[in-house]
Amino acid sequence: MIRTNVIDKLNVFRINVKSVAVLPIESFDALLGNSIRINIMDMLSRGPMTVTSLAQELGMLKGVVHRHVKALEDFGWVRQLNNDEVKTVGLSREANRIYYVPSAMVYLGFKLEANEHGMKIIIPANYGAFVDVRGRKFILLTPTFSNHECRNSCPSHEACLDWIKRIGKQYHISVDYDDAGRALMYLYTQLILKEFRINMINNAIMLDSPRLNSIFMKHANLAL
């Protein structure tokens, strides 16, 4: 799997943070049209924060922000730092503070479809999100929504796109997109599908979602 080096305060992402999270499409729906939750993800992409600090920066009541953060946690977008992680990063545990961070660096969507042969796992390349470490932003991409246009707003766009295409060649994946954000989503989608197919040869596969029971499958169909 591709490793991402993180710098400055974002070194928290070196600590037990999965490189990729595969979430149900409904988790993406929970973000779409909710600017507060997208703003929270954007703020957490800069480093760990408490509900109190989020509320202060947003200028909102703590209770309202807490409900949004819990929803993001339920849908798999964020998680709490444990005590060891808090100590490692050097944060204060005064007053039993709870710090939240993104649960992954890259998020991909999946959906399940039943047919006469069983269950099909579909991982579309047009549902994705990622933490832009250099820009300290949360980038959300769906068929109808994007909160950031990499190609027109990032001075490092061409360097990122070149890196993505070179990584694709290493894994025999042809990446034809000219937008770095969507190219990255496509690359990770193909890598995840390759991993799923390898694991499905002789093993069961498990998809775990806070909003779905853990699903175990044997020899499932995979599709884009």
List keywords for this structure.
7-stranded mixed sheet, globular, alpha+beta, disordered N terminus, two-stranded antiparallel sheet
Element-by-element helix/strand order: EHHHHEHEEEEEEHHHEEE
Largest sheet features: 7 strands, mixed
- Please state the structural category: alpha+beta
Q: Which geometry do the CA atoms define?
A: globular
Mean pLDDT: 79
Counted by DSSP, the helix tally is 8
Beta-strand residue fraction: 25-35%
The overall strand count is 11
How far is it from the N-terminal to the C-terminal residue, by CA? 20 Å
Radius of gyration: 18 Å
Low-confidence segments, ≥5 residues, pLDDT <50? 1-17
| Helical proportion, percent range | 25-40%
Mind explaining what this structure looks like?
There is one protein chain. Helices cover about 35% and strands about 25% of the residues. It contains eight helices and eleven strands. Strand 7 and strand 8 form a beta hairpin. Helix 3 crosses helix 4. It is globular and about 50 Å long.
Helix-strand layout with pairing:
Layout: E1 18-24, H1 25-29, H2 35-44, H3 51-58, H4 62-74, E2 78-80, H5 83-89, E3 100-102, E4 104-115, E5 118-122, E6 128-132, E7 137-142, E8 145-146, H6 150-153, H7 157-170, H8 180-200, E9 204-209, E10 212-218, E11 221-223
Parallel strand pairs: 1-4, 5-11
Antiparallel strand pairs: 2-3, 4-5, 4-6, 6-7, 7-8, 9-10
Short summary:
By secondary structure, the protein is an alpha+beta fold.
